[in-house]
Amino acid sequence: MIMTRYIQINPADNVAVALCPLTKGMIIELNGMRVELKEDIATGHKIALKDFAQGEMVIKYGFPISHTVVEVKKGCLLDDKRMKTNLSGLDTYTYTPKFEEQTFTNEERTFKGYLRPNGEAGIRNEIWIIPTVGCVNGVANQLAEELRKETECKGIDSIIAFPHNYGCSQLGDDHENTRKILRDMVLHPNAGAVLVVGLGCENNQPDAFREFVGEYDPARVRFLVSQRVDDEIEEGMKLLREMYAIAKEDKRRDVPLSKLRIGLKCGGSDGLSGITANPLLGVFSDYIVAQGGATILTEVPEMFGAETLLMNRCRDEEIFNLTVRMINDFKNYFIRNDQPIYENPSPGNKAGGISTLEEKSLGCTQKSGSSIVEDVLEYGERVTKNGLNLLSAPGNDLVASTALAAAGCHVVLFTTGRGTPFGTFVPTVKVSTNTALYNQKRSWIDFNAGSLVEGESMESLSRRFIDYIIEVASGRLALNEEKGYREIAIFKHGVTL
């Protein structure tokens, strides 16, 4: 049952947000103000709390999110047809540090994980088969199927192949992006063993890739070059049997939460995202940071318009400069390709009540909580610092989730107001912004944040969520794992030969 039917998020806002469908003629009351609705207002959409002249600023979250392009009367809908972004071109930035006092303390809690010989911890003990090139996707899939049949996955969590389309006919950054993501997968602690399957003639040469991987455990990471053997399935199975015998002996044990690496990801957002699910992830991020762990925020284009909030939380001027470079590099990426920088939000976002990129970004960045930004990672770079990190990656859900996992995240937290079944190569927990979606897509959505507008307090909701994620880290399957929805997507933005 909806306890509150509408909300003014910040006292400075000149709009309210409908938390359920509202009908024309209804009277809403906020801070001593009475507003009669002139139109039906759908869930997540904005209500004008004043008469707007053309060109007036629309304020939400306490910040301008757009200007009106037509006159809008008090009580009317404010959507993408009646307002327009204030953003244009490149910006200049000044470091103005603003840090908030943190309320969480280290509770010294643990999860049941797998300690690896190099000191890292995994939350899964899986066997992965990773192709160096798309040409051997079929081989990788067949090997995974054969090993599953032979072992029934006894003693391990899963056996998975991760096909992709790349590894050859790529140049420059695209080639390096492929190498980096595949390297990061090979080294990920959620894998108890990895078989890298190459062809032999690809651009991503297996021998060169082996050197690129750097230090690894040769007992748990093996390489197969298909063109160099008579029967790649037979030879691959020999290697897999040897690694399986090792991996199946791994056992879960108590591991401190300081070992956890959590990815913060926003899916198809609606107007409730910045009210429910994203603030929940922000609280959770602050909690994990307080435990000594790491959280990673990405989707750089969905920071545009709210980037200064992150910049002002940078540890020092060096981290600030890295953040500025990350933002401007992505803006220049759009410019180089003759594309508008601010062509966002998506049609699904607009249908859910998000009208401009500023509005989307102010909601999305709430996933980062209020912790200090400790580091900025390039695409394909692995996390090395505890605390809040920023990662350079696009807003595309598949690419961004893969990038978070590759950076070392054990779990990707994926908020959504529209719903998606997708999962990347680590557990991908879907958090709904509204209860209706949770009830409709129980096979997709792992956790419902919609209860936050139905009477549940953030303290209660966040505690339930903390306990749930510890359960996932300790072996409870996310729905994408149960369904077998596990994919990788690599960032491509150049020439294919």
List keywords for this structure.
497 residues; alpha/beta; Archaeosine Trna-guanine Transglycosylase, Chain: A, domain 4; Ribose 5-phosphate Isomerase B, Chain: A; 13 helices; 29% helix; 20% strand
Describe this structure in words.
This protein is of the alpha/beta class. The chain folds into 3 domains: 6-84, Roll (Archaeosine Trna-guanine Transglycosylase, Chain: A, domain 4); 126-251, Ribose 5-phosphate Isomerase B, Chain: A; 258-483. Helices cover 29% and strands 20% of the residues. It has 13 helices and 23 strands. It has helices at 137-151, 172-186, 206-213, 232-247, 277-290, 307-311, 317-336, 347-351, 357-364, 397-406, 435-440, 458-473, 479-483, and strands at 6-7, 15-18, 27-30, 33-36, 46-48, 57-60, 63-68, 77-78, 83-84, 110-115, 121-122, 126-131, 158-161, 191-198, 221-225, 253-256, 261-266, 294-297, 373-377, 387-391, 411-416, 428-432, 447-448. The strands form 6 sheets. Strands 19-20-18-17-21-22-23 form a 7-stranded parallel β-sheet, sandwiched between helices. Strands 1-2-5-8 form a 4-stranded antiparallel β-sheet, with no helix packed on it. A 4-stranded parallel β-sheet has the order 13-12-14-15, sandwiched between helices. A hairpin with a 2-residue loop joins strand 3 and strand 4. The radius of gyration is 24 Å and the shape is globular. The termini are far apart. The model has no long low-confidence stretch (mean pLDDT 95).
